[in-house]
Amino acid sequence: MSGSAWFGRWIPFCWGGLTLLGTAGPLTAQTEVGFDMALQVTDFASSDDFVDLENRTTLSFPAPHIRVAMFVTPQVAIEPRVGFTYSASGGASVSTTQVVVSGYYHFPRIDGGRAAFVRVGAGASILGGSAVSDTQMLTEAGVGIKLPSRDRLLFRLEGFLGRAFESDRSRASTRLGASVGVSWLSGP
Considering the entire predicted model, what is its pTM? Predict the structure, then answer.
C-alpha cells in the first residue's frame, strides 16, 4: 500500500487523537512535559525496491522531540510527541517531522513514589526535501518506570520497540531502544 493511501487511512485517527487531546485538558489532574536521551538500533527490512541501507545504531541527546502527557485519570495519560529534524549538505536538504500519540497506563505507585508504566502509540513520520517527499506510518510500544527526584521533577527510564511501515519511498524498519528522560510536572 502506498504512503499516500496509508496517510489517508490515518487522517481520521489523527483527528480523533487531536479531539481527545482537546478534551483531555479540562479533565486532567496533571500534565507532564519532557524530553529524552535515546539509544536505539534500527533494523531495515530487506527489499529489492529500495537502495540497500545498513542497519544503524543512533544515540541522540536530547531526542529531537518534545512530549506532553495529559492525565485523564491518575493511571491513564494521553501523550502527544512532536519532533522536527533538518539537515543540509552539498545543496540538498532533508527535513523530517514526526508526530506520535501514545496512550499510557501507570501502575500503582510503589516505594518512594516510583511508578511503572506501559505505553502504546501510533503516528507518522513526514519526510520532505529537495529530492524526496514521503509519509511513513509508525507504531510503538514501551515499558518503563518514573523516578521522582525533586518537587515536580522526575526521571523516566523506558525500553521501547517501534515499527515503521514501508511506504512509497521508505523501507520498513524495526527499532529497539532505551531512553532516559527528564520530566516536569504541572497541575495539582
Answer: 0.75
